[in-house]
Design goal:
Number of helices: 1
Distance between the termini: 90 Å
Shape: elongated
Helix content: under 10%
Number of strands: 8
Radius of gyration: 24 Å
């Protein structure tokens, strides 16, 4: 069996223990990817173990805010926790969206612990051809 070692894993675990879980007033950061795919921007957030009803997505002007809460799983009385490394608490992320994105038509999907937002590019921001009119002559302005 191969074992991969991560020299920073213990440091991360220690930092998590010292800082404690995220709270609504001090949420932890959630990891994300953002990229352009055709005529839309895609933002994907990793939210493993978070139920869909514990995710809150808001857009105010051009500020997108995603908050999620990972709650403890209910356990029976005779269960004794031996190891707990999965973080609980609140995580949050805010993104400033460009004016060229259509925030009225954001689509959100949640599958396998990944929240995916698809934000279309606004029509006014898409490249377009400008036709050139041919005038019948010169116009002089006298003043």
């Amino acid at each position: 069996m191969l074992m991969r070692t991560d020299p920073f894993r213990e440091l991360d675990r220690l930092a998590q223990q010292l800082m404690g879980p995220g709270t609504w007033s001090r949420p932890s950061v959630m990891p994300m990817d953002a990229y352009r795919e055709g005529e839309e921007y895609v933002v994907a957030f990793d939210l493993p173990g978070v139920p869909a009803d514990a995710i809150d997505i808001d857009v105010e002007r051009n500020m997108l805010t995603v908050k999620a809460e990972r709650r403890p799983v209910a356990k029976a009385d005779d269960v004794q926790m031996e190891l707990s490394e999965r973080p609980l608490g609140v995580s949050s992320r805010q993104i400033v969206l460009a004016d060229t994105l259509d925030t009225e038509h954001i689509q959100a999907d949640y599958d396998a612990g990944v929240l995916t937002l698809r934000i279309p590019i606004a029509e006014r921001a898409k490249p377009r051809k400008i036709s050139i009119g041919v005038g019948s002559g010169r116009t002089e302005i006298s003043g």
